[in-house]
């Protein structure tokens, strides 16, 4: 990426769904090739993406108006997080990040780290104290990103049919 590219973080809309679904499928395949068990059981699927967008949970990073990254951002609602083997850092309002996926075209360009920066700014603007996120034990790329962005390991949650490593970052 050069500096001429226009990068935007925005809410996803229904016209984005086909490209978001393509990006999710690329991410599923990338997880498989990396030897990860994450996303190898039919989740997330097209209905998940459609639901994310219709409920205003879907957000994208675009580069020159092309969708490059997708994530679902959900305030205060993750039933699986009510039971953790370990302990969350906070008990107040929080944002959950789910279903992060990067287009193959833009992979390896540091966009997920940029996504976390955008999300953290967005969450602060909503006066919400923390961000919670989980990932598979074998999603090495995401584990490295979470560590580099200052997320604290809090324990394990049971989600989408499996145990996930749970992390939290306190913003305020």
TrEMBL record:
Domain of life of the source: Bacteria
Domain N-acetyltransferase: 7-172
Protein name: GNAT family N-acetyltransferase
InterPro entries according to UniProt: Acyl_CoA_acyltransferase, GNAT_dom
Coiled coil: none
One Pfam family in the UniProt entry: Acetyltransf_1
Record-linked CDD domains: NAT_SF
């Amino acid at each position: 990426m050069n500096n001429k590219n226009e990068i935007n973080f925005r809410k996803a809309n229904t016209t984005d769904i086909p490209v978001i679904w393509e990006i999710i499928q690329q991410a599923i395949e990338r997880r498989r090739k990396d030897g990860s068990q994450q996303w190898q059981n039919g989740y997330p699927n097209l209905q998940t993406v459609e639901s994310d967008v219709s409920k205003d949970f879907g957000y994208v990073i675009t580069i020159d108006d092309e969708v490059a990254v997708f994530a679902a951002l959900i305030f205060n609602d993750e039933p699986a997080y009510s039971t953790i083997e370990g302990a969350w850092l906070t008990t107040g309002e929080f944002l959950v990040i789910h279903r992060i996926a990067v287009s193959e075209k833009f992979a390896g360009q540091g966009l997920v780290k940029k996504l976390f920066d955008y999300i953290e700014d967005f969450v602060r603007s909503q006066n919400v104290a923390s961000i919670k996120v989980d990932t598979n034990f074998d999603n090495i790329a995401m584990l490295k990103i979470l560590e580099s962005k200052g997320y604290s390991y809090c324990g394990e949650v049971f989600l989408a049919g499996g145990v996930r490593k749970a992390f939290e970052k306190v913003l305020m």
